[in-house]
Amino acid sequence: MRQALKADRNIHVVVGLIALIAAIALLIFIPDLSKDYAAVFATLTGVATLYGVLFTIIEVLRTKAAADLAAAAAKDATSRVRAMYASRDAAECQACIESALRIVDEGGVVPLSVLSRISKIYAGEFADQYEIHASDVRQRILLIESYGAMPPKARTNSTKIKTTLVAMNGHLAAHISRNLSSEKV
After folding, report:
1. Which residue ranges traverse the bilayer (predicted)?
2. Residues 173, 94 contacting (CB under 8 angstroms)
3. How many contiguous H segments (helices) and E segments (strands) does the chain have?
């Protein structure tokens, strides 16, 4: 479309030449239009007005094409920014999961703030799947939330949390890879 805008730059000259040739042809082939100065003036102003209307129509079409280009560029930029934020959120969730796994490996209790952040970002990344009650995403988040609801001493003995966190981390990694491979370069 950008090439079409560049190609249309000389269209005004072409339309102007056509209007000039039309004016000369009218004056030559219709003698009544050139019988006195008033008739010649009226003919030339009519042709100039017609040229002005055509000029305006061409400019409106070019402006519409430029606006369409700008809208497409804005849509592309918005898409890239959204993808960038989604990648950042997914990376943050992975970092929280890895932190939680380290704490679990050391025999500690994962803080509720870390669990909350994992649940929030993970649910946001897979919002469509979270809405399905029987989905793996929903089950993982429910397990994280139930782990957080346990008393701290009971959390240290939980065995399912580690496998859930590892599954979530793998799921996020696959999700990030898919998003990066489908992103336009």
Report:
1. 12-31, 37-58
2. yes
3. 8, 0
Residue of 174, 107, 117 lying closest to 144 (CA atoms): 117
> Are the beta carbons of 148 and 112 closer than 8 angstroms?
yes
Count other C-beta atoms under 10 Å from residue 126's C-beta: 21
Copy the structure tokens of residue 170: 């793998």
The answer to whether 148 touches 115, Cβ cutoff 8 Å, is yes
**Averaged confidence pLDDT in the chain:** 86
Determine contact, residues 93/117, Cβ cutoff 8 Å: yes
Q: For the chain, how many residues are written? A: 185
Look at 4 and 32; give whichever has higher pLDDT. 32
Q: Please state the pTM of the whole predicted model.
A: 0.60
Tokens representing 101? 């796994």
Position 140 confidence tier, pLDDT thresholds 50, 70, 90: very high
- Each residue's pLDDT tens digit, 30-82: 888 888 899 889 888 999 999 999 889 988 988 998 999 999 999 988 888 88
Give the C-alpha separation, 68 to 62, whole Å: 10
Distance between CA 78 and CA 65 in Å, rounded? 20
pLDDT tens-digit map of 153-169: 888 777 788 999 999 99
Q: CA-to-CA distance for 62 and 145, rounded, in angstroms?
A: 57
